[in-house]
Amino acid sequence: MSVYRPTYRDEKTEKLKKSKVWWFHFKFAGRRIQESSKSTRKTVAQEAEKNRRLELERAYAGMHSEPAAGRVAPVVEKVKTYSANYTSSHRAKSVVFSTQRLAHVKRLLGSCLPCDLTEDKIQEYIRTRLAEGAAGRTVNMEVGELSRAMKFKWSIAWPNVRKLEENHEVGRALSPDEEKRLLQAAAGDQSPNRNPTLYAFLQIALTTGMRSGEIAGLKWEQIDLEAGVMTVGRKAKTRAGSGRQIPMNADIKAVLEMHASWYADVKRFGEIKPEWFVFPGRKGRPKKGEKRLDPMAPMQSITSSWEKVRTAAKVSCRLHDLRHTAATKMAEAGIPESTMLAIMGHMSRAMLERYSHIRMAAKREAVKSLSLPDLTVKTPNPNEVAKVPAKVKGASAPN
Questions:
Q1: Which pLDDT tens digit goes with each residue over 68-106?
Q2: Is the separation of the CB atoms in 20 and 43 below 8 Å?
Q3: Residue 99's domain is classified under what CATH number?
Q4: Domain-ending residue, one of 122, 157, 192
Q5: Which residue from 315, 354, 359, 370 is spatially nearest to 333, judged by alpha carbons?
Q6: What's the total number of domains in the chain?
Q7: What is the pTM of this model?
């Protein structure tokens, strides 16, 4: 440790004196570091030098250093600051993604200080989330979002915490019967806290292949019932998906007309305005006499309503599987890949292949088309078999 008390010349007596405050100095990355420990105790100065070295090493490795006040702020406060800054510079879809990933982080790690986020603590978080049924990919995204919020680099802050194995083939296509049961459950849900817009939401997902975030962000100005066209706005996940137009079939057009009639009821919102969201969000705690739904706010989540309907329909699937289903139905119908890419809003053929799952019923039909022609040979009658001439029986084979 290179700690010392510097000498100085007294202005009055012109004698050399030693400072009571200890300083430290060392070289780092070719630079001379010389700073005061601001303490009169040598042991404190040695600890200050050690901490300063560590701080520089972390900064050199890409791990952000921050003022002392920030180091004692709990994780929940740092996440709030991160989310507030994130909102102003990212797409709405990305903001929703970040918010959802950090929800469990705040729940399980919100009271921790940044210095408490050790490898053991992160491993404990991972075990808890896996026990709750979260998939490996989900947990990886949550820990990754935490590292960004803390301004840490995962590989440096927690080098021994390996990412979990991810299953990229978890999606599946629903059978026609499963589709029917889901829609019947959504249409027949009469519970007090039901989501009255869920039926239309699921119909759009199944008949257009749009992402849930894209559907939630739809405004009435993007719906042209006369032309039968729906335009996906900036809520799209990719640039390729933004601004794409999707024609409506007769089913979805009828559903949207019915939804518009429900929406325009005077007891709800009255005459529809173009800037209103097709699927209005809910107010937190509306005052007495106020409507709970707000047409100027987008729907944030349908998780609880979706889980209730999915359970009632006895269908085991994710909401995103409705998008897989739409892609699969188009693939089975022989729709050209270029057209599917234009409707789904993908950027590559490889991504489209992930969403297309040829179902067993279609495979059976395909196999039927490969059946061989009837080549069954009729067994001859022994009495009708011609006798071989005796002179031929001993004949040698031709050269």
A1: 555 557 889 988 888 888 877 776 667 777 888 898 999
A2: no
A3: 1.10.150
A4: 157
A5: 359
A6: 3
A7: 0.57
